[in-house]
Amino acid sequence: AAGLPAVAQGTPSVRWRMSTGWPKSLDEMYGSADALCKRVSELTEGKFEIRAFPGGELVPYAQNMEAVSNGTIECNHVLATAHIGTNTAVAFDTGLSFGMNARQHNAWVQRGGGLELLREMYKKHGIVNFVCGNVGVQMGGWFRKEIKSLADLQGLKMRVGGIGGMVLTKLGAIPQQIPPGDIYPSLEKGTIDAAEWIGPYDDEKLGLNKVAPFYYSPGWWEGSASITTMVNEKAWNDLPAPFKAAFETACNEQTLRMNAAYDALNPPALRRLVAAGAKLNFFPKDVMDAAYKTSQELWVELADKNPDFAKIYPEWRKFQEGQVAWFRVAESALDNFTFNAVSRSSK
Amino acid sequence: AAGLPAVAQGTPSVRWRMSTGWPKSLDEMYGSADALCKRVSELTEGKFEIRAFPGGELVPYAQNMEAVSNGTIECNHVLATAHIGTNTAVAFDTGLSFGMNARQHNAWVQRGGGLELLREMYKKHGIVNFVCGNVGVQMGGWFRKEIKSLADLQGLKMRVGGIGGMVLTKLGAIPQQIPPGDIYPSLEKGTIDAAEWIGPYDDEKLGLNKVAPFYYSPGWWEGSASITTMVNEKAWNDLPAPFKAAFETACNEQTLRMNAAYDALNPPALRRLVAAGAKLNFFPKDVMDAAYKTSQELWVELADKNPDFAKIYPEWRKFQEGQVAWFRVAESALDNFTFNAVSRSSK
């Protein structure tokens, strides 16, 4: 159209493939990857086209990190902790159990030295990482029976992976790896006793409230589920500067927008789940205390085994302590007052 | 350089001026406006250049909204509540006292129908608005004497404007309008009893701890200080689509990055202030309760007087109630546990 900046003659066209860690049914998570690609295209007048693929289509879910590392695909869109088998330090990219919340994590990444530390670690894998989304605090999952104390976790077969699975193992539970489509029948038959998925908006689609009515909060192992796009280092270095700027800006935009989407969609979904019979519950104090203590022990163990983990952990922890001190003075003080006041007046 | 997308022949060049509401000494706030402009330039290969100006250089601070409305300047970068004299409903753009926190506000704007409501209101002023930053919860300011109860606010002369000033007037205080450079001498001489500015990082530069040592939290009138760029509607409509995309994406990026910057910079600044003698305090419960109640009464009054306020308020409030219900289940539950646990172990 007249007045539109014409596509420059001679501008190179770049085509990338993005393998996501999500089935299309996770419409916000997959949708955010898709929105990222669309934005990059829009910002480059269609010269830099990235196509997002549902999980498993290009490479198996578990190989999303390796495939970027070896250049099979240019980039992915994943929860980095799905790849702690490759390097446990990727956990700092997603967030640790009882770690920083979404805002604090973003502060660490954007202005607290976090991105630099993560980049140094990923460089060893030939990867350049970008934060490109956040789910916020996830739920603790669906349980067939009430959890009255820590003792009820003994021998409990639960669908949970990553860091949560490592901590829960130490607490006596038995983590299970089960694909999303098998969660419902496994809970129905009692093959497993519990399953965590994401939060109200995504959980609702699986209908787990019908087979495991006890819905626990909070998902302490994912207090900030930060989403990552890992980019093959050579593919990144080959990009023209304006395409790099477009990619980075679009990632930052999705970090804001994915979190906003989940924050907007979770409240009505939770109301519908409770109306449909979900019994909302909080983990008992002794479970929370034991999980916190066990998590701290786990960080020491992981630091002993992995120099990358050992390098990032003290910096990350120091930043968290500063955030906690400040959030207790301002954010939490006002949140707690306002949430109580609004809650009272809206009853 | 070879391989770079060449600037398209025939692409129109656009030059805009952005009048900010900040002196350059607010280096993060002004810096975010500047970063927004630089990013837009980078995304458009220098074809869309916006130049940010310190407050007062292009138009007086108080005329930033009017100047965009009448096309004197193409855009501004302000705290919208500085313009409640023009339309009280702009308060929903910045955030109300005891309103939503930064994440909740962004959820409302991005996915909760908030942007559409704000756009409809601003359209009457010939303005298209964009959220482009957030400071988070501000501090409640510096006081020469301790505030032990609500009675201590009677007759208290305080430098505070906007919504905070309206609520504090109802509580018996006497708001004062004083330019930043005059705050220190006014407090020193006792011409005023208290002054609010922003938060630890910016407050530190004014050195107010030396003349008004009682530092109060939280700044309940700015629980989410969301920053706005108002764009002249005609200037916006004249932009080519890729320039619109660049501007919008850069605003979303700064919404994330300004908040991250303040979250990263405030904790060490608060530590330094306390070490330098600031006496950190929380507003007494009766002050908080009275301020909350008075705020709710104020919304009813403002809705009675202004149809724009009346239209947005019930939608905004309904969204806040949903956010509060959900945040109490997940975010706050985990924040409160983790903050206590980390705080105990970091002592």
From TrEMBL, chains A, B:
GO BP terms, alphabetized: organic acid transport; transmembrane transport
Superkingdom: Bacteria
NCBIfam families listed in its UniProt record: TRAP_S1
One Gene Ontology CC term in the entry: tripartite ATP-independent periplasmic transporter complex
PROSITE patterns, per the entry: TAT
Key words of the record: Metal-binding, Signal
GO molecular function, one term: metal ion binding
Cited Pfam families: DctP
Keyword Transmembrane helix: no
Binding site for Na(+): W197
Binding site for substrate: Q138, R159, E196, E222
Record protein name field: TRAP-type mannitol/chloroaromatic compound transport system substrate-binding protein
Keyword Metal-binding: yes
